[in-house]
């Protein structure tokens, strides 16, 4: 049975720990949606930022003023947006492209490869990374989450705040593009 979000919010504001835990689970997609605006899916800092987001939500339960006629969801959405924007400014700017370029550079500069097979394997990885770089940012995120982090498409849908059907479509589209690009190489 699905509990009404307004009931969950009211109980969370009253301090009910069980409902606060439910609220955190319900707001998880909002957290990751904001994180992925500023950090790469594969960035290790993203998971730390998720934990920070949970803390922001819990703290906001104490600071929320219902007398101001603002719904809690609007309040927390705005609070998370500005929190992540400020954290991103503090940590320095990194884009998907720059992270991929760093990964490509690592593949290029791999030292002392001992056999032709290892060299061929590195070449394939390099070509794949270069091809992934040509995908849209949404396609890149889906490919990385699905293949590199082993997340299910349902989980990716929730984390990115994208409908499941769109995630499937984007994944299929990305694989098609990668297939074409890899065949050309």
Report on this model:
With 185 residues, the chain is mostly helical. The protein folds into 2 domains: 87 residues, RNA polymerase sigma factor, region 2, helix turn helix motif (Rna Polymerase Sigma Factor, Chain: A, Orthogonal Bundle), CATH 1.10.1740; 89 residues, Winged helix-like DNA-binding domain superfamily/Winged helix DNA-binding domain (Arc Repressor Mutant, subunit A, Orthogonal Bundle). The chain is built from 10 helices and no strands. Helix 3 packs parallel to helix 5 and helix 4 packs across helix 5. The longest helix is centred in the C-terminal third of the chain and has 21 residues. The protein is elongated and about 60 Å long. About 5% of the residues have low confidence. One of its GO terms (biological process) is DNA-templated transcription initiation.
